[in-house]
TrEMBL record:
Pfam family, one: Peptidase_M14
Cofactor: Zn(2+)
Residue ranges constituting the Peptidase M14 domain according to the UniProt record: 9-274
Assigned keywords, A-Z: Hydrolase, Metalloprotease, Protease, Zinc
Zinc keyword on record: yes
UniProt feature coiled coil, ranges: none
UniProt name for this protein: Peptidase M14
Native organism: Flavivirga algicola
Length: 380
């Protein structure tokens, strides 16, 4: 399917009730009742705080694909794109071939407590993506139970990543990233890893037409406590998705469309091909993620008798049911090896805060003052 066709589908079927970064059970529950008879949905377990965990099944094909999102509660972009995808399946015939060839099992929010609190961890302060072996948490047990009963042929592990990542050591943001997780200490390129790599290569080919040089892959260092590594070790091709930052897109609405595009391109490929890993080599052409970005860098600031750069990173906080951004100074030093999503030239002037004092590390406010000019720091 061409990129233009996918974009048209997205604009037509985007779930407009889901927006911005804060997505919880309360946001998706009204949508579940409207999915209709072609989607079977059920409560598959409960979280630490007894919030329901939902599972959705759609399609009638032999190729089984398990997809789970918001394992980390504050990573919601992939969840928004899942409902865009479901809308498309239910309201358009363009993707009927996927549903004829595949059966999808979707867990839209695995960590509802973390989603509600807007935290990475669950209510017991456990990172569910480090609990694959211990299975100490109810949410981990739910995912494992569905994995065992559904018996997927492919797994999609859906996440979001911070604005700090670049696609290689460049000034290109890693807007979407992937990983075919390792399954042993030697990071052996096994047959099922090759299958995952081939699928990632297809998505990358599509995304390069939209965001050239803005796709990355993660280091595949092995950690059996991670869910992807565990499922990969058990012989199931597993793809890690990471929804990252696009210029100015702090709502993650542009990235949402790119994730949707990745879903459709990969699922169409799986539906129409016998994916056995023969075409995995393009995976190794994707640059590895580096941490080369700050949200803002103030360049050439006068600090004492020297010129230095000031790195500012947004802190995301839940305020009255909405995610707000709070700029915080992380470093004051030479940052020649780093890039800012926004850069401000202080031109050798000192940088002051709201109290007319020189700013320092950990200073947190929505503006700074340079040469008597008040400069806003919040994203537009």
């Amino acid at each position: 399917m061409k990129v233009e066709e996918i974009k048209s589908l997205f604009l037509k079927h985007k779930e407009v009730s889901l927006w911005h970064r804060y997505i919880t059970n309360k946001h998706i529950e009204p949508l579940l009742d409207n999915l209709g008879k072609h989607v079977i949905w059920e409560t598959i377990g409960e979280s630490v705080l007894n919030n329901p965990i939902y599972g959705l099944k759609i399609g009638a094909g032999n190729k089984r694909i398990l997809m789970w999102s918001q394992m980390h509660g504050n990573e919601s972009t992939t969840t928004k794109a899942l409902f865009d995808l479901l809308n498309t399946f239910l309201k358009d015939t363009s993707l009927k071939g996927i549903l004829e060839a595949c059966t999808l099992y979707v867990i839209p929010i695995l960590n509802p407590d973390g989603a509600e609190a807007y935290t990475r961890i669950n209510a017991n302060r456990v990172d569910l993506n480090r609990d694959a072996q211990d299975l100490s948490q109810p949410e981990s047990k739910v995912l494992r139970s569905i994995f065992n009963s559904f018996k997927p042929h492919f797994c999609y592990n859906l996440h979001g990543q911070r604005t700090i990542f670049s696609a290689g050591r460049t000034n290109k943001s890693a807007t979407v990233s992937f990983l075919s997780p390792a399954q042993d200490e030697n990071c052996t390129i096994t047959p099922n890893r090759k299958v995952a790599m081939e699928i990632i290569g297809v998505m990358n080919d599509t995304l390069q037409k939209i965001i050239p040089n803005q796709v990355g892959v993660y280091d595949d260092a092995f950690n059996l406590n991670c869910v992807g590594d565990t499922f990969q070790r058990e012989g199931i091709p597993t793809v890690l998705f990471e929804a990252g930052h696009y210029e100015g897109d702090y709502d993650r609405e542009i990235t949402r469309e790119l994730i949707y595009t990745s879903y459709i391109s990969s699922l169409s490929y799986i539906a129409n091909k016998d994916v056995i890993g023969n075409y995995h080599e393009s995976y190794f052409e994707i640059p590895e993620n580096e941490k080369c970005f700050y949200d803002i860098i103030v360049r050439n600031a006068k600090v004492g008798h020297m010129k230095k750069d000031i790195a500012i990173q947004y802190q995301e906080k839940l305020v009255n049911g909405k995610i707000e951004f709070f700029p915080k100074i992380e470093k004051i030093e030479s940052l020649d090896a780093f890039f800012g999503h926004k850069e401000i030239d202080a031109s050798g002037f000192e940088v002051f805060g709201h109290d007319n004092q020189l700013v320092d590390i950990n200073y947190e406010n929505v503006f700074v003052i340079i040469n008597n000019d008040k400069i806003a720091l919040l994203p537009k």
